[in-house]
Amino acid sequence: MRFLLDQDVYELTARLPVESGYDVLRVRDLGLSRADDVTLLKTARERGRIMVTRDRDYGYLVFVEALQSGVIYLRIAPATVKPVHAELERLLREQPFDRLKRAFTVVEPGRYRIRSLSHDA
User: Fold this and answer.
1) Which helix (H) or strand (E) holds 15?
2) Tens-digit pLDDT profile for residues 31-53
3) CA dist 22 to 4, 30, 62, 77, 110, Å?
4) pLDDT tens-digit profile of 64-102?
5) Which of 25, 22, 27, 16 minimizes the C-alpha distance to 1?
6) DSSP assignment, residue 62?
7) Which residue among 51, 61, 78, 117 is least crowded, i.e. fewest CB within 10 A of its CB?
8) 24 pairs with which residues across the strands?
9) Is residue 121 part of a domain?
């Protein structure tokens, strides 16, 4: 799996996919620390990566603005790090990359939800 991690992803969270052997880039690795969300989402799509973020605005961009790209939205706060990490690990074990790159996925304590995008992506 290939991921692009937003600036707002906790360092502890960023280690999970790396330690699992996944291909992970951070927006800062690409010199995009100050880029807007639209640019980041387009970059993820163009590079064949799933955007991982804590920013709920990506849902608007994906569904209302129709910027079709896979997103994993982490509903995470300092108090919920462990349960969200457990769900993220479960998600990555259970779901294939091809499904996640065509979906908006919400990961929260105790569950994850996947909403598929249109097949035009």
Assistant:
1) helix 11-19
2) 999 999 999 999 999 999 999 99
3) 11, 17, 24, 23, 23
4) 888 889 999 999 999 999 999 999 999 999 999 999 999
5) 22
6) H
7) 78
8) 3
9) no
